[in-house]
Design a protein that fits this description.
This protein is α/β, with parallel strands linked by helices. The protein has 2 domains: about 350 residues, 3-Layer(aba) Sandwich (Alkaline Phosphatase, subunit A), CATH 3.40.720.10; about 80 residues, Arylsulfatase, C-terminal domain. The strands form 4 sheets. The protein has an 8-stranded mixed sheet, with helices on both faces. A 4-stranded antiparallel sheet has the order 12-13-14-15, covered by helices on one side. It is globular.
Length: about 450
């Protein structure tokens, strides 16, 4: 039976390539920053209005077991762009300049910080360009230090050197644009009026150009990363009332930022439809990691950004692909942002030369409803060999999920935690003392993989 299903999956994949060989679909990737799984109405949030993203979910497939490749942005983005794990890339932390100092007096010595995504790595933009796509990116890169601007692209290791033919790093209406140069105050915005966002306007401008070939558009939002602030007093008052007296000012501002982001995404999707491009465009929406703990909760999950508990790595993922993906469909298959490279490769009909050392897989079989048992049992791996003490007491750790079992391994004391996510979504019941065989099996699988890709490990101080 498994052989038959595998053959059907291969046939379905070939069918996609044949169908779109003469009219390849456009691709729009919307990546948001620090959005928790539980920030959206379509994932159960009852307080924040996200009608446009919810509508996108109703038009396509909503993944309930989607993961970021890392619990932090730079590492996650590097994996999404290349289809390789952070361990294989040796890009496991946030890019930092030379002044950054590791936390002092830690038990273990951490690997050095990786500052740039090397030009030797092939991104999905380079693959798309070679496959005949026009490539564009607008927004956050955060994969280089070759710049004198905060989150700037630089001139040596930015998107324009990694396959994107056009784009802009403009921060738009995000507080990054003004928080360092003037106080964060409310502006003169009427009810239901939002600030204009240059990032979104630039992306819409690209959509409205004449296109003589398919395009790949990467819209990489700075929202909803801190600092949390809305310029709209009406939005602040709305969520102050809705969230109640126990909510902090940061939490209120954050909720307003989520709604504002939803508005911008709505404008982008509206432009896609008004230009007549929507019917032949693959749209995917996801986040680079979980929510920041002082701004939002990640319930029902344990943990938050910077941690390998579910709250740090499980994220929303939504795909709309008219004619291929059924509306109002869901998938419980565990997937990761690392899978996007292989997915784009199959959709574009790119050559096999881009398959070397990929850690992700194409999601096309899932999107077409043709999966076999290997998807349920495949191994997803995370590697974070660092400390981070600003928000929480993160220590060097790695994790693996296989089926419903998830193991988190801590390097300081050679300790493992084991959870059954099918029964314990909040990771409250550590099963490691009761299921020693499962612990050893998953630990061996985790460490064997990490050694096979020559991962960097923390080492004890002498």
């Amino acid at each position: 039976m498994r052989t038959i299903l595998s053959l059907l999956t291969i046939a379905a994949s070939l069918e996609v390539i044949v169908i779109y060989a003469g009219n390849k679909p456009n691709i729009v990737l919307i990546l948001v920053d620090d959005m928790a799984w539980s920030n959206l109405g379509c994932y159960g949030n009852k307080y924040i209005d996200t009608p446009h993203i919810d509508r996108l979910a109703s038009q396509g497939m909503r993944f309930t077991n989607a993961y970021a490749p890392a619990p932090i942005c730079s590492a996650s983005r590097a994996s999404i762009l290349t289809g390789k794990s952070t361990a294989r890339l040796h890009f496991e932390f946030v890019t930092k300049d030379d002044s950054y100092m590791h936390p002092p007096d830690t038990q273990m010595i951490q690997p050095p910080i990786t500052q740039d995504l090397t030009l030797e790595e092939v991104t999905f933009a380079e693959m798309a360009r070679d496959a005949g796509y026009h490539t564009a990116m607008f927004g956050k890169w955060h994969l280089t230090q070759q710049t004198d601007q905060h989150l700037g692209w630089g001139n040596t290791h930015g998107p324009l050197q990694q396959g994107f033919e056009t784009g802009s790093a403009d921060k738009g209406s995000h507080p990054y644009s003004y928080w360092e140069i003037r106080p964060m105050r409310f502006g003169k915005y009427q009810q239901n009026e939002y600030p204009k966002d240059a990032l979104t306007e630039n992306a819409i401008g690209f959509l409205k150009q004449e296109h003589d070939k398919p395009f790949l558009l990467f819209v990489s939002h700075y929202y909803v990363h801190s600092p949390a602030h809305t310029k709209c007093k009406w939005l602040y008052d709305k969520y102050k009332s809705r969230l109640g007296e126990s909510a902090t000012g940061k939490e209120i501002h954050f909720a307003a930022m989520v709604e504002t982001l939803d508005h911008y995404i709505g404008l982008l999707l509206e432009a896609l439809e008004s230009t007549g491009l929507g019917e032949n465009t693959f749209v995917i929406f996801t986040s680079d990691n979980g929510g920041q703990p002082d701004l939002t909760h990640n319930l029902p999950f344990r943990g938050e950004k910077w941690l390998l508990y579910e709250g740090g790595i499980r994220v929303p993922m939504i795909v709309r692909w008219p004619g291929v993906v059924n509306a109002r469909s869901t998938s419980d298959i565990p997937v990761t942002g690392t899978d996007l490279f292989g997915t784009f490769k199959e959709i574009m009909g790119a050559t096999s030369g881009y398959s070397d050392n990929l850690d992700g897989e194409s999601l096309v079989p899932i999107l077409r409803g043709l999966v076999d048992s290997r998807w349920e049992e495949r191994e997803l791996i995370w590697h974070f060999p660092y400390y981070h003490t600003r928000m929480n007491d993160t220590c060097p750790q790695s994790a693996i999920r296989k089926g419903n079992y998830k193991l988190i391994y801590y390097y300081e004391d050679d300790r493992s935690e084991l959870f059954n996510l099918g029964e314990d979504l909040s990771e409250e019941n550590n099963l490691s003392s009761r299921l020693s065989n499962e612990v050893e099996d998953l630990k061996d699988r985790l460490l064997s993989y990490l050694q096979s890709v020559e991962a960097r490990f923390p080492v004890n101080r002498e």
